[in-house]
Design goal:
Layout lengths: L14 H14 L3 H5 L6 H6 L8 E5 L5 H9 L4 E6 L2 H13 L6 E5 L7 H5 L4 E7 L8 H10 L1 E12 L7 H12 L9 H11 L3 E7 L4 E7 L3
Parallel strand pairs: 1-2, 1-4, 2-3, 4-5
Antiparallel strand pairs: 5-7, 6-7
Helix pairs in contact: 7-9
This protein binds S-adenosylmethionine.
The site of S-adenosylmethionine has 23 residues, from helix 1, helix 4 and strand 2.
Protein name: SAM-dependent methyltransferase
Keywords: Methyltransferase, Transferase
Organism: Mesorhizobium temperatum
Amino acid sequence: MSATELPARHAEPPARHAELMDGVYRWQRHIYDLTRKYYLLGRDRLIAGLDVPAGGTVLELGCGTGRNIVLAARRYPDARFFGLDISTEMLETASAAMAREGLSGRVALARGDATDFDAEALFGLATFDRIFVSYSLSMIPGWEKTVSAALAALSPNGSLHVVDFGQQEALPGWFRTLLRGWLRKFHVEPRESLRDVLESETAKVGASLRFRTLYRGYAWLAVVGQRS
Ligand SMILES: C[S@@+](CC[C@H](N)C(=O)[O-])C[C@H]1O[C@@H](n2cnc3c(N)ncnc32)[C@H](O)[C@@H]1O
């Protein structure tokens, strides 16, 4: 199924942000996986930590080219996967990747806004065993709502996994300045309050939060799960 034929059973995503993302990725998507492997660090660690239960369901919010879903689908061969993205361009690439990998029967993709989505309407499922957000919160306006929407869409024993840019807290100042300038060109804004927001949203649902700093603050990795 091509991205232009993807299900439209959802509220229309905000047009200006969708256009912006399509503009960013129209050409970038062709070199995205090759180039991002050098600086979107921690994604494989997130996938390894998903620990999907047998026959489980996994949703990625802001799935981009589908790179993470392909790797996760190989690692958890009996799980079903769902990918949501606001960019038709990215979904076009993701859809082709699923077909190439023989995963189209096990992966459903849909266009939508990660801050306000109706999973039941998009995927026929209201909740998921695992939800993850990889380097997308830093590109989503109103990203805090993505955190609350994801927690609301978790199954009773589900977990939410997040990896994104940290604040480069233990890295040299010049590196931080260069990185921030580079990221701004792609409309990426590392979320300084990520930990605080995850803590307060986690507390609201009575879950537990594990928050880790990777590579001297280059990236942050968090897991929200059931309190044990
Ligand atoms: C940096 S890419 C990350 C892609 C993938 N998760 C990865 O780790 O390679 C960010 C993705 O978030 C998507 N995105 C941005 N804002 C969004 C929103 N409001 N709702 C859904 N997806 C969004 C972009 O279209 C893009 O595909």
